[in-house]
Amino acid sequence: MRGWIIFKETATLLKPETYEVERFMEEAKKQNIDLQVYSPDDFDLTVTMDGDRSILLKGERVPLPDFVMPRMGAGTTYFALAIIRHLERLGVYCVNSSHSIELVKDKLWAQQIMAQKNLPTPKTMLVKFPVNIDLVEQNIGFPVVVKTISGSQGSGVFLSRSRTEFIDLMQLIECTAKNVNIILQEFISNSHGRDLRVFTVGGRAIACFERRAAGDNFKANYSAGGSLHEALMTPEVEWLATQCSKEMGLDVAGIDLLYDQDHFKICEANSSPGFEGLEKVVDINIPREIFHYIRIRLGLFERSKLEEQEEVKPVPQAVKKTKKEKA
Question: Distance between alpha carbon 294 and the CA centroid of its chain, in Å?
């Protein structure tokens, strides 16, 4: 089995995904998978009708791989998406698809899809300058969460705690970046400084953990200094995560859930979820799970020798002590 990771570090990432890429390479070696890492800039795209199953890579025409894993998430550029679409057109299985990556990259579009499917989400509003402050207060209220349309690892997210603070922020944005696309979301107070991240593979929830913010920060992202704790995989949590993954068309996803009284709301979906912190607190091998699913999708049903030696562990159904607590 041959595969490519399409990956490029960007300055907007708080935590580069080098850990995840290295783990994929490590696991691929154990499973005798020929896995290579390339940047979108390594490719040249030429659209033809000759049916040639190859692509230009670093100036040379090379045969296509069995699968491709884009690992750029919200930082996926138009050029990178074009490369992924081109590979899909040539019959290469991409984890995830160009459509799903583009969908979850646009947070408003993703919210519209979830609302259409009757999945619980925070009330969301698209910003239009000049901002009608009274309309925002009537429909969303304060505090209000301000987000850029595209972003990951908690970047581009701000909590305006009052009407005055919100007015100041909107005036600043209007003066400096009027063309930026911004959404507003209701603030779910029960989830202040914490949320749940559910990792799904092939429509199956395989791990669940709670993220807690550092100090008084309302953002719980691990990449922003938050801590991780294994959490209960309730039927509601599992259903929300798997349904969200299904509606977004994501084969591999990180689904973020907000605490809302005794239930949850879906905050957003991630097409290139990190798992460094997850593997530290939950006894699970994420790359192995993903490679196992890819084999199934490609029709390679023979289990690798490594999987024969070690069965895939069941999803934890109750809170367990973290590795640190056990020590």
Answer: 18
Q: How many CB atoms neighbour CB 159 within 10 A?
A: 16
Listed by start position, the domains of the chain span 2-104, 123-187, 191-326
Please count the other Cβ atoms lying within 10 Å of the Cβ belonging to residue 174: 14
C-alpha distances in Å from residue 6, one per residue of 11, 40, 94, 193: 17, 6, 10, 32
Cis peptide before 190 (omega within 30 of 0): no
Q: Where are the alpha helices (DSSP H) in 224-275?
A: 235-248
Assigned architecture for domain 123-187: 2-Layer Sandwich (3.30)
Judge whether 193 and 218 are in contact, CB under 8 Å: yes
The structure tokens listed for 71 are: 């690992």
Please, are residues 318 and 232 in contact by the beta-carbon 8 Å criterion?
yes
Q: What sign for the dihedral angle of Cα 63, 202, 265, 138? A: positive
Query: What's the CA gap between 198 and 244, in Å, rounded?
Result: 11
pLDDT in tens, 268-327: 999 999 999 899 999 999 999 999 999 999 998 655 444 555 554 555 554 444 444 444
15 contacts: CB under 8 Å, gap ≥ 6: 153, 222, 223, 274, 276
Residue 149 near residue 182 (C-beta atoms within 8 A): yes
Answer yes or no: CATH 3.40.50.20 is held by domain 2-104: yes
Residue 115: pLDDT over 80: yes
Query: What is the CATH topology of the domain spanning 191-326?
Result: D-amino Acid Aminotransferase; Chain A, domain 1 (3.30.470)
21-34: pLDDT as tens digits: 999 999 999 999 99
At residue 158, what are phi and psi to the nearest 5 degrees? -140, 140
Nearest CA among 92, 96, 85, 77 for reference residue 39: 77
What tokens does 292 get? 């196992």
CA distances from 246 to 93, 225, 235, 241, 253 (A): 17, 30, 16, 9, 10
